[in-house]
Amino acid sequence: MNNQTIETILNHKSIRKYTNEPITKEQIHTIVQAAQQASTSSYYQAYNIIGITDPTIKKELSLISGQSYVENNGHLFIFCANLNRFLLKTDESFKEKITENLMNTEHFLVATIDASLAAQNAAIAAESMGLGICYIGSLRNNIAKVDQLLNLPPFVIPLFGMTIGYPDQEPERKPRLPIEAVYSENSYPQNNEETEKYIDEFNEILGAYYENRTENNRSDTWTDQLHRKLSKPVREDVTTYVKSKGFNKK
């Protein structure tokens, strides 16, 4: 299929090393506009995008994430779930009830999904300009500190970051699970043996990728990665933090 948009999406690679070439304000503005045009539940637009230009804050966020490229990039976005905006023009007679309803898990999901959809639009827009991007979930290593650095009010939480810049590396495209493992029609797949077969196939594909890639080659499989990561606790403070901000309390 000769379609530039599809080609951009299918050629996505996470970029973790950037040149010193700056990104213009016009580019940033266009990327944010593209993010805003993402689908949004009930027209809520329940997110905020914070651009980090202060080198001191960038440095702090880099230390939290443990990633040098959080500091060294063309621009850094932080995507936040935001329900606080709904309270700003609310009549006092409704505020207490609305505040109570915002604590519902459904609204937490809506804000998280809205922010994620906006972020993916931003990613595609940036890549269409020849820029590289990388999502930064490791900001949640100390989510309360990120909250403090960004002066976030109640009902606003930082979900993830995104580095953007001109690539200074050309990594190989990382393979994905077979389409049969993630797509089915009319029902969730009922044949676990068949799914396991697709996972076995993917382990072989990914193993070959890791052994043959240009940088950081190693012997590994998708299943082994999952075992290592999921067999130990991770960011156990996040649940308490999220609830302290008013989210997901009922």
How would you describe this protein?
The chain is an alpha+beta fold. It folds into two domains: 4-171, NADH Oxidase, CATH 3.40.109.10; 174-234, no CATH class. Helix content is 46%, strand content 12%. It has helices at residues 4-10, 25-36, 55-65, 92-102, 105-128, 143-150, 179-182, 192-212, 222-230, 237-244; strands at residues 47-52, 75-82, 132-136, 156-165. A four-stranded antiparallel sheet has the order 1-2-4-3, sandwiched between helices. Helix 2 crosses helix 5 (105-128). Residues 10-166 form the Nitroreductase domain.
Listing every helix as H and every strand as E from the N terminus to the C terminus, the arrangement reads: HHEHEHHEHEHHHH
Task: Give the CATH superfamily of the largest domain.
Answer: NADH Oxidase
What share of the residues lie within helices? 40-55%
Structural class: alpha+beta
| CATH second-level architecture of the largest domain | 3-Layer(aba) Sandwich
Q: Cα distance, first to last residue?
A: 47 Å
Low-confidence stretches: none
Helix count from the secondary structure assignment: 10
Q: Biggest β-sheet, characterized?
A: 4 strands, antiparallel
> Any idea how many domains?
2
How would you briefly describe this protein structure?
With 250 residues, the chain is of the alpha+beta class. It has helices at 4-10, 25-36, 55-65, 92-102, 105-128, 143-150, 179-182, 192-212, 222-230, 237-244; strands spanning 47-52, 75-82, 132-136, 156-165. It folds into two domains: 4-171, NADH Oxidase, CATH 3.40.109; 174-234, no CATH class.
